[in-house]
Amino acid sequence: MTRIFSRKDTILFPLLLALFLLLSACSTSNDKVDLEEDLKSVSASPQETIPTIDQNSTPIPKPYVGDLELPVIGATGFTSVQLELKDAASQDSETVQLLEAGTGFEILQEDGDWWLIQNENSIGWVLHKYCFINLPDVIPSIIYDNTNTYSAKYVSSAKSIPNITGETLYQGKTFNNRLGKEEFIVPVLYSMSKKINLAQEYALADGNSLLIYEGYRPYSAQQAIVNELTKLATVDFEVGAGISTSPWSINWFIATSVSNHQVGYAIDVSLAKVNSKEEIVIGDYASIEITDYIEYTMPTPIHELSLASATFQTPVSAMSPTAWKNVKLADKMNEAAINLQTYNTKAGLTPLASEWWHFNDLDALNEVKDNSSDGGYILSEIYSVIPPSNNKY
């Protein structure tokens, strides 16, 4: 019989068999690992394989789209007359309380002709046509310099007016939380603010800016100016002639009764050349701030109360939106003053015949004729806050 296995073979065979089984086990294990990795890849969720977008990322500030540079929400408003505070945006709704003229508040919401407002004592709805809005809160690009709140510039025939020139006539500057800086309080009727914004757009397009010296003026300040100017005119012939030479009279330069400044449809404004500006961010909104400027040389210094400041050669009705177009400009009206007039009249404002710096909104006046302000209050407190996210309202 042939011998198949030797003793040596009987030793090698088990070793070879063990090696074969070991290699098979390793191969099976690797296949299993590869299969598990493949299964993991197939079963991975979309969130694990697709980059996610951070929903809480800070939005890129963009300019506000509307009739003003910033939304009215969060701005300060004031009642110009006593107003009923309603519990809904309707004249038929219940009256919550009466708000006295000159009451300040934060604007929470706008709904048609109504604002939802609040202050430390009240919350409710008011008709906004009878309300002022604080201009710096909604048109921050304008340059504001209410000199009457720290050093009045009033003169007459280039002569100082005792107890007026260089004096503080009323308080009107405070820290503004919305703007993050000290700023003047410059109230006008809400509807007028939209025309002022349009005038500023025209000015900015030419590399210029409005320079607003005053909006609302308290009646007490008005009367102080009248009294002191009248006294001066009686003892100084030149001053007297400057405010009363026919066809002019003192009322053309400073109203002896309630004026358009008290009602809230007037601004005193000059024009400045913008040397530099920078983008600012207020809440979610991008706006601009003038960082350097120079006021143009105008026909006279601001608040020169005399016929030297006349816009036109003759008086023309201040109550007509078009009569001014039919009279000749005064000889002193220079290019800067004409540009200022163009910006404001294109925006719907009306120039005053006796003061190159004065513009009225007759539409705003007509809206409040039935119930207009007498200016018997000083507006020195604001409620301005950063406007809410543009996704909130």
Automatic annotation (TrEMBL):
GO process annotations (BP): cell wall organization; proteolysis
Keyword list, A-Z: Cell wall biogenesis/degradation, Dipeptidase, Hydrolase, Metal-binding, Metalloprotease, Protease, Signal, Zinc
Record's catalysed reaction(s): D-alanyl-D-alanine + H2O = 2 D-alanine
Top-level taxon of origin: Bacteria
InterPro entries: A_A_dipeptidase (IPR000755), SH3-like_bac-type (IPR003646), Zn_M74/Hedgehog-like (IPR009045)
Keyword Repeat in record: no
Signal peptide: 1-29
Keyword check for Metal-binding: yes
Record GO terms (molecular function): D-Ala-D-Ala dipeptidase activity; metal ion binding; metallopeptidase activity
Pfam families assigned: SH3_3
Domain SH3b: 85-130
UniProt feature coiled coil, ranges: none
PANTHER family linked to this entry: D-ALANYL-D-ALANINE DIPEPTIDASE
UniProt-recorded name of the protein: SH3b domain-containing protein
Organism this protein belongs to: Ureibacillus manganicus DSM 26584
